[in-house]
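QA checklist item 7 of 12: single-chain prediction sanity check.
[x] sequence parsed
[x] length recorded as 427
[x] structure emitted
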Amino acid sequence: MTFAPTIVSDRIPEASGPRPRHSTVGVAVGNVMVGGGAPIVVQSMTNTDTADIDGTVAQIAALARAGSELVRITVDRGEAARAVPHIRDKLRSRGVTVPIVGDFHFIGHKLLADHPACAEALDKYRINPGNVGFKEKKDRQFGMIVEEAARRGKAVRIGANWGSLDQELLTALMDENARAPRPLPARAVTQEAMVRSALLSAERAEEIGLARNRIILSAKVSAIQDLIAVYRELARRSDYALHLGLTEAGMGSKGIVSSSAALGILLQEGIGDTIRYSLTPEPGGDRTVEVKAAQELLQTMGFRTFVPLVAACPGCGRTTSTVFQELARDIQTWITDSMPDWKARYPGVETLNVAVMGCIVNGPGESKHADIGISLPGTGEMPSAPVFVDGEKVATLRGPTLAADFKTMVCEYIERRFGAGERRAAE
């Protein structure tokens, strides 16, 4: 008995790519545009005591160098509010122009009123409708913050949060649901409360006088499926710019994987204009990891380019030598360290693709697909490493200087391909 293949189509369909971005409203935050078709913005948050001016300046500068395009700081008391203008001034004196966002809870209305220099120094205010005030004080205190932002031309992120949801709103929706002929699960009601909290607060802000192009919304939860459901509904019912983030994502690979899963799905659907990875660092750990993770998500999904990509062989029984692993790590570290200088000298260098492969099975093929690639010998193979440039074999490297020789070739390729802009500027 013979089987004939069924031909579904005579051509391979093209990749559909991400859906068009949902937000049509662009929001200026300092020198950065969020939404309205602008590139998706990476942001981060400090974990220093904002009253520690030097420590906060150092961390903001480090986050900015890593690529954070907005940095949020905690403004929780008078000492922190008084520090904000000094932090801004010290950053500017260092040439760091990243916009600063003030994170306000509970007494934000008072801090902004009592410290006008802080209110002016910040580029955006972040407020949570669930804890901006309670009972009869809630509307008044929310209004005071919004009025301050409108008067000073500041952007505002209205950020509902699963852990501090407006309890009056949630109770009202739960009571309403209990009376329904077919009550929804409590989780669905809580999701609806998140969406309504953000949308009703935005509507109120506009009524007070804050322009639509000054408002960014967020509705952050810590469970992936809840986050996806809430943001889909928020996007369906509004066209505000949206900030994405899985709150309390966790530590290490768990935090990175869970954030990537949730944010990747939403971004692919065209939802989200600015993102943050809310990662718990190791004690004394590097805060910039959250910036790098966000950049890697956007770059691997094809939304933006930040640094050259290095494709590297995962290794198998054919690659018992660690040479290719060491070279891949060395090249990746070298590229990362070189990027500040390269970006200034070689416009477009972030689009470079480099391959460091470990044996003859996929090495030559992957190296041909890269802009420049090297295929190292596997176990039992000839001790030579062909180098491919733009798909063509151009050299074979051998010996103890192999790594240094390949770096030299990468530098020459960058100069040849991306150096024209630098030469034109010099002329």
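[x] summary fact logged: The first strand starts at residue 27 and ends at 29.
[ ] second reviewer sign-off
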